[in-house]
Structures are given as C-alpha cells and as structure tokens.
Amino acid sequence: MLYSALKFVHVMAVILWVGGMLFAHCFLRPAVAQLEPPVRLRLMASVLGPFLNAVLAAIVLILLSGAAMIGQEAAQAAQTGGAFFMPRSWTAMAAGGLVMMAIYAYIRFVLYPRLNAAVAASDWPAGGQAMGGVRRWVGVNLLLGIVIVAIVFLG
C-alpha cells in the first residue's frame, strides 16, 4: 500500500512538471506571441513564477518518493536474501531526472531572475533574450521528460 501511494505521488508530481511544460511551451507561448513585448513579457513572468515554485515542490516530491520506492525494493530484496539490482529503466529515469533538475535550476535561478529584472526595468530586449533562453531550455527539458516517460513505460 505504501509503495502504491509513493508511486502515485511520484507520477502526479511528474505530470505536474512535464504537463505544465507541455502546456506552456506548446499552447501558452504561441498564444502570447501575438501580444506586444511589454504585455507578453509581463504575462510570462507572472505565469512562470508560480509554475516554477510548483515545480520546485514537485521536484522535492519526486526525489523523496523515488528514493523511498528504491529503498523499499532494496529492503525487500535484502529481507528475502537476494540482491537488489535497479532496473535499467529506473537508472535511466533517475539519471535523466537529475539532468532535468539541473536544467530546471538554471531556468529558475538564472534565467527567470533575468526575466524579472528586465520586466521591472522595462528593458524589453533583455526580457526577450531571457524569455528566449527560458523557451529553449523548457523545450529541452520537455523533450527529456517525454523521453524518460517513454523509457519507463516502454522499457
């Protein structure tokens, strides 16, 4: 029962993160592209702040639930006298997740503050550059997230 609850939390946090990136990258971004730079950049900065905070909470849940599930599997193997070998798909998921977290950290702690500073200063060219970086790295992270999900479910 505990394992199922942990898996539920893990998957829901991944859905929030990857689904949010999909929505922002494929639906929100093209829709706001029609707006003038001051309006577009203010809107995106306003939307990204709460989303990035939610993703930070999701990352904590993903790390905790993932570690707990691996720990449960390892403990069960030890109790039965066997050895625990993490499946390749889990190893790929963990490694890919760590790469995604590093990219998230770059977006959250480098690019997003640049965007906020540019918006506060009404420096629209700098804001556009920062937003371009966010767009690019969210695209990379979205692709990684989709590949990881595919590896886990198909591998």
UniProtKB/TrEMBL annotation:
It comes from the Bacteria. The chain crosses the membrane at residues 6-28, 48-70, 90-107, 137-154. Keywords: Membrane, Transmembrane, Transmembrane helix. Residues 47-153 form the Copper resistance protein D domain. GO terms for cellular component: membrane. This is Copper resistance protein D domain-containing protein. It comes from Achromobacter agilis.
